[in-house]
């Protein structure tokens, strides 16, 4: 998490309007890595399989090398895992997020004071 | 804009999951300030008046002081302008965005090299 204080706004980073990799996709990469499966990751993130698949397909097309490799079939059904490129993209994204957030931690805390308690729920 | 290079990913910052102020709302504040009208701002941003109004209403509730003051009626129809609180929130948001982006400019440029030309369209 960008902030350790749950009642403060958190920084999130989007890469461009097309969002080649943003917070939602980064979380999806993390969850696929943890579960080893697109369908299990989708369930855990409360999104449809179709939506998870579309996000992954978009990432695999936007990056020079695919971020996720899926295998289909077999007795246990298909599995999915991050490729080396996927691990690298995710590591770099998290590093950028952390560094950018740290650079403005004081300003973010001060900004939160402009909000009502409800406005601070994020 | 966060980057002067149109083909590079841009950083955008969201404040929390509830997003009291994010890139879309910040742009809306800018456009209301420029046009002096919610309906003109909505047109310019290709969003419905209803959506613009809902975003503004949410901001006015999430912040301790309203960010936009709207006046209705009169010969020329209603107008809208940023309050002092609105100008302050917007100024602080842009400052945070700029500082955070500058802190990771090199990492963002390197990240862009992972993307295809299409993935860099954002």
Please outline the helices and strands.
2 copies of one chain form a homodimer.
Chain A: H1 23-35, H2 38-44, H3 49-62, E1 68-71, E2 79-82, H4 84-103, H5 105-112
Antiparallel strand pairs in A: 1-2
Helix pairs in contact in A: 1-2, 2-3
Structural commentary:
The structure is a homodimer of 122-residue chains. The relative contact order of chain A is 0.18. Chain A is elongated. In chain A, strands 1-2 form a two-stranded antiparallel ribbon. Residues 1-8 of chain A have low confidence and may be disordered. The first copy, chain A, has helices at 23-35, 38-44, 49-62, 84-103, 105-112; strands spanning 68-71, 79-82. Chain A is mostly helical and 122 residues long. Chain A contains five helices and two strands, in the order H-H-H-E-E-H-H. The A-B interface holds A 8-20, 23, 61-65, 85, 88-89, 92-93, 95-96, 99-104, 107-108, 110-111, 114-116, 118-122 and B 8-21, 23, 61-65, 85, 88-89, 92-93, 95-96, 99-104, 107-108, 110-111, 114-116, 118-122.
Order of helices and strands of chain A: HHHEEHH
Low-pLDDT residue spans of chain A? 1-8
Helix residue percentage of chain A: 40-55%
Helix segment count of chain A?
A: 5
- The average pLDDT value of chain A, as a whole number, equals 83
Placed side by side, the strands forming the largest sheet of chain A appear as 1-2
Structural class computed from helices and strand pairing of chain A: mainly alpha
Distance between the termini of chain A: 12 Å
Shape of chain A: elongated
Identify the quaternary structure here. Answer: homodimer
Largest sheet of chain A: 2 strands, antiparallel
- Total beta strand runs of chain A: 2
Rounded radius of gyration of chain A (Å): 17 Å
Question: What portion of residues of chain A belong to β-strands?
Answer: 5-15%
Using a beta-carbon cutoff below 8 angstroms, give the protein chain pair with the largest interface and the number of residues from each chain. Answer: A-B, 44 and 45 residues
